[in-house]
Structures are given as structure tokens and as C-alpha cells.
Design a protein that fits this description.
The chain is of the alpha/beta class and about 240 residues long. The chain has helices at about 35-45, 55-60, 65-70, 95-110, 110-125, 140-150, 155-165, 165-170, 175-185, 185-195, 200-210, 215-220, 225-235; strands spanning about 10-15, 25, 50, 75, 130. The chain has a single domain (about 10-235), classed as Protein tyrosine phosphatase superfamily (Protein-Tyrosine Phosphatase, Chain A). Helices cover about 50% and strands about 5% of the residues. The chain is globular. The mean pLDDT is about 95.
């Protein structure tokens, strides 16, 4: 998908074997959606809820998704917070830096944020819903990976979905100019960040399986309610197999 054929930035339905078609969608910065985009998300894709992983500070800086709110789409703030960005602070983080960053997101984030997030996801999952953050690749990538694992989707397809973000993020990199300017980085530095490689997520998923038994066991460790996991599984898979 490209910016000329889809609304917003890095927007797409998530597709994977075992996932109910059209139920889970993902995106970058939801403030990029215009009034026309919002109507398309509501009427063409059936989206009723947006789960926004951005922090309150980000919402203050970049704004709220007013076009979506005006279109009657429910906006839910469920920030993932409490972890360090140190592994990816340098201008051009490597794949292993990103893997360490994602491990930190799991290990260091406030456990309460995972419980609240997955409760809100379960509340939204009876209808098409959208998960987003600022770029739609790191926090969104981790959360979507967990949802796909919960739905029993193949690990290779989870990694491919992650990798698909690169197309539109590279095409629309200039939307994020303030990010590299504030950090003293260059446009080419930021392009490196936008090139999401499936191998990066595959490596991370493999290490999570070795260290924690998978993302779903991790969520249980963090106190995510079994009822919320069961409800998500049912809505994402139309009654899929228990994991």
C-alpha cells in the first residue's frame, strides 16, 4: 500500500492466516487523518474504535485525532509507558538495538499499562478497531504481534506484517521531520529507522519464545485478565483454538 491509495500514514488492515478479516487495523499518527479519511475509516473499513498507544505528552504535542472524533469514532488512550528508549537513541540503531528496545518495552513498561491496554482492546474487538502510535511500527508492532500470536497466526506472517510498515513510512518520512530535527539527526538517519525489516521482529519473537514462552504467557505474567485474552481470541478468530 502507498500513501496515494490509503488514508493517513502507515495505515492498513492486518492480514494473517487465522485472523478474522477486517477486524484489526493499524496506523501511524492518527492526527494525519483528514475529515475525508475519517469518513472512509468509518464507512469503508467499519472502524468504531481507535486504541492510541501514544503518551499524554505526545498527544499534547501533536494533538488529538479530531477528524476521527468528529466522525463518531471512539478514541481510547491506552499508553504504553515506563520503558527506556536508550537502545535506539543513536542516529542509526541496528536490528539488534531494536530487538533490545522491544525487550525493554516488555520488561520495563508499567505492568498496569498492559492490563488496561488489553482490557480496552477486548472492549473494542467486537467491531473493527485500529491500533496506533506515532509511527505505527514499534509500540504498534509489539501490540499487533501479541494480538496475532493470541490469534494463533504463524510467526513468519507476524514478521511480514511488521515489515510492511516500511513502504509508507519511507514514502512519507518528511511528516516526521520534527523528530530528527529535535534529536540532531538527519533525514537519512530517520529513513534508516523507517525501514522495518521482518527479520528484526522474527529475531525478537524467537527470543521472547525462548525467554518467556511467548508473548501471550508474558501478558499473563503482567496480570492481563484471562477473560480479556479469551474475548480477544474469540473476536479475532471467530472462536479460535485456546493458546
Amino acid at each position: 500500500m502507498t500513501a496515494t491509495t490509503t488514508p493517513g500514514v502507515n495505515f492498513r488492515p492486518v492480514r494473517a492466516t487465522g485472523l478474522r478479516p477486517g477486524r484489526l487495523l493499524r496506523s501511524a499518527d492518527v492526527t494525519a487523518f483528514t475529515e475525508r479519511d475519517a469518513a472512509e475509516l468509518r464507512d469503508r473499513y467499519g472502524i468504531r474504535t481507535v486504541i492510541d498507544l501514544r503518551t499524554p505528552r505526545e498527544s499534547d504535542r501533536y494533538g488529538v485525532p479530531q477528524a476521527l472524533i468528529d466522525a463518531g469514532i471512539r478514541w481510547v488512550q491506552a499508553p504504553v509507558t515506563g520503558y527506556a528508549s536508550t537502545p535506539i537513541d543513536k542516529p542509526r540503531p541496528t536490528s539488534q538495538d531494536v530487538v533490545r528496545y522491544y525487550h525493554g518495552m516488555l520488561a520495563e513498561a508499567d505492568p498496569a499499562c498492559w492490563r488496561e491496554l488489553f482490557h480496552q482492546l477486548a472492549e473494542a474487538a467486537a467491531e473493527p478497531f485500529l491500533v496506533c502510535c506515532h509511527c505505527g511500527k514499534d509500540r504498534t508492532g509489539v501490540v499487533v504481534a501479541a494480538l496475532l500470536e493470541l490469534a494463533g497466526c504463524p510467526a513468519g506472517e507476524i514478521a511480514l506484517d511488521y515489515g510492511a510498515s516500511a513502504v509508507d513510512l519511507v514514502a512519507q518520512v518528511d511528516r516526521f521531520a520534527d523528530k530528527w530535527t529535535r534529536r540532531g539527526h538527519t533525514r537519512e538517519d530517520y529513513l534508516t529507522r523507517m525501514r522495518t525489516a521482518p527479520e528484526t521482529l522474527a529475531d525478537w519473537l524467537g527470543e521472547v519464545r525462548e525467554q518467556r514462552g511467548g508473548l501471550v504467557p508474558f501478558l499473563r505474567e503482567r496480570g492481563v485478565a484471562e477473560a480479556d485474552l479469551a474475548r480477544l481470541r474469540r473476536e479475532l478468530t471467530d472462536g479460535g483454538e485456546q493458546r
